[in-house]
Amino acid sequence: MSMYGKDYPDVADVDPYGETLDGAALLDQVEAMLARFVAFPSDEARIAVTLWVAHTHALTAFECTPRLAFLSPEPGSGKTRTMEILELLVLRPLLTVNVTPAYLFRKVADEQGPPTILYDEIDTVFGPKAKDNEDIRGMLNAGYRRGATAGRCVIKGKTVEVEELPAFAAVALAGLDDLPDTIMSRSIVIRMRRRAPNERIESYRRRVHQDEGHELRDDLAAWVSVVRADLQDAWPVLPKGIEDRNADVWEPLLAIADAAGGNWPERARATAVTLVTAAQSSAGGFGVQLLADLRTAFGNESAMTTEAIIEALCALDESPWADIRGKALDARSLSRRLGKYGIKPKVIRVGDKTQRGYDRADLHDSWTRYLPDLTVTDVTDVTDAGAKGGADVSLAKAISMKSDPTHPGIESPAETPAPLLPQVCVTSETPATTFEQMLTETPDTRTCPCGKPISEYRQWAGLTDCVDCEVGS
Q: What is the CATH number of the domain that holds 313?
């Protein structure tokens, strides 16, 4: 078997348990190389990128391929450098900054196999000053799922023929600000930032480091050739709360982690929960923000007049409703925006008067569908300890992962989707109670020996120190 000009033994002749094909060790090496040249915003970001690199070598084994989006508010945040390192490690890299849709379609349809597209300066394609690029957007959207094609009519001589071009390919994007929502929902988003004065990385020179990177790339390709059959048949167990599109995005990376073994399955799941939670907290446009602000404005009220709602919305700190393109939100605009969700104003009674307004019951369905459950606490505490540093994932182990016994890895359809937080902790020190029950009781106000408060979740889990002390120990 030959890859990148280097001969490897056939799969049947390779000992899958041999030291040279230790998947966990290979991922450790990839992660270490990424950390040498890139100051990632978090350990979770570095872990996700490491798994994404490995998944490009097994692309055809998966149903979906997540987009990897490196975004930052300002230039000089390490996005391009990250793309340069990825170019050394991924399968058939295509590093580009300005291409036509026709070029991309035909590169993906290459007989040798689709490239891994590393698209830098993507803000020139989708930014506020960019022109219409719906063809590229359509390819990035559809091409994340295997079997997607782009139809084209091709003139050959005097005849017009129909051509089906495959669109399935791994894609990493880098640019300023955000991407269209349809791409963001298919992406693992890494919010890059400029290095702080105390963050040190190694200087990168391609001519010096490319051989080292290519050796890692070749080893990844050889390892994947051994575990490809396992990856094709894999049904990785997903943490509770990761479902629908998020399940599509994370399933390939969790399958890679499971195949590698070591502490990668736990680190991958802790990373998935953390990044999905972060994405959900910032997801949605004006419509979702309006729903969230309405839930805040309503408080415990059963109904509110339109006038009272607008006054409450405009009074919210950092809300956009007092100045939307130079005008404040009015009754007509509020009705139009809520009408998209099937919510209409009605005559309501407030005291002894009747006025037009909105009923809480009419908003409840949209709140349930588009906003996170207020009873679910952020899972950052759950994943902090394990995802940082690659040490023992003590709290990540508490993430409850239950699958349908009739089909490993598939959530039972009869069950109601559970929140991201575990319902019962699996550590021996944990009392037989749920986290939600603990919050209804008088919380312990214990502090760590370092003087910092211990989070309620860590108290519930039976831990006696803060996250910083656990990570540092």
A: 1.10.10
The Cβ-side half-sphere exposure at 82, using a 13 Å CA radius, reads 34
How much is the average pLDDT of 292-315? 93
What gap in Å lies between CA 269 and CA 387, rounded to an integer? 9
Which residues are within 8 A (CB) of 217 and not within 5 positions of it... i.e. 6 or more apart?
A: 4, 88, 89, 90, 91
Q: How far apart are CA 376 and CA 451, in angstroms?
A: 27
Residue recorded with tokens 């017009």: 160
Specify whether 171 is located in the same domain as 30.
yes
Of all residues in the chain, the percent with pLDDT exceeding 70 is: 73
Contact 470, 385 (CB under 8 A): yes
Residues 186 and 297 in one domain: no
Query: Does residue 446 surpass a pLDDT of 90?
Result: no
Top pLDDT among 324 and 222 is at 222
Predicted pLDDT of residue 97: 86
Closest of 387, 382, 419, 412 to residue 398, by C-alpha: 382
Q: What is d(CA 84, CA 310) in angstroms, rounded to the nearest whole number?
A: 49
Which residues have CB under 8 Å from 439's CB, separation 6+?
Answer: 377, 456
Question: Any idea of the CA torsion for 412, 416, 419, 420, to the nearest 10 degrees?
Answer: 10
State the chain's mean pLDDT as an integer. Answer: 78
The rounded distance, in Å, linking the Cα atoms of 14 and 21 is: 9
3-state secondary structure (DSSP) of residue 337? helix
Return the structure tokens found at 20: 């040279």
Map residue 347 onto helix, strand or coil: strand
Concatenated DSSP letters for 289-323?
A: HHHHHHHHHHTT-SEEEHHHHHHHHHHSTT-STT-
* Residue numbers of the domain that contains 402: 378-473
Helix (H, G, I), strand (E, B) or coil at 234: coil
Spatial separation of the C-alpha atoms in residues 436 and 438, rounded to whole Å? 5
What digits encode the pLDDT tens for the residues 119-141?
Answer: 999 888 886 655 667 888 888 88
The first and second tokens of residue 9, run together, are 């033994």
- Tally Cβ neighbours within 10 Å of residue 54: 26
Crossing angle (nearest 10°) for helices 286-298 and 331-339: 110
